[in-house]
Amino acid sequence: MRSELQANRPTAQLRLRIPRDESYRCPVSLSLSVVLRPTGPVRPLDRRLLGAAAVGVGGFALAAVYQLSGQRIGIPCILHATTGLNCPFCGSTRMAAALLRGDLDAAWHFNPVVLVIGPLIGVAIGYQMLAWALESLRLIRLPRLTLSPRTLAWLTKALAVLLIVYGVARNLN
Question: What is the 3-state secondary structure (H, E, C) of the chain?
Answer without folding.
Answer: CHHHHHHHCCCCCCCCCCCCCHHHCCCEEECCCCEECCCCCCCCCCHHHHHHHHHHHHHHHHHHHHHHCCCCCCCCCHHHHHHCCCCCCCCHHHHHHHHHHCCHHHHHHHCHHHHHHHHHHHHHHHHHHHHHHHHHCCCEECCCEEECHHHHHHHHHHHHHHHHHHHHHHCCC
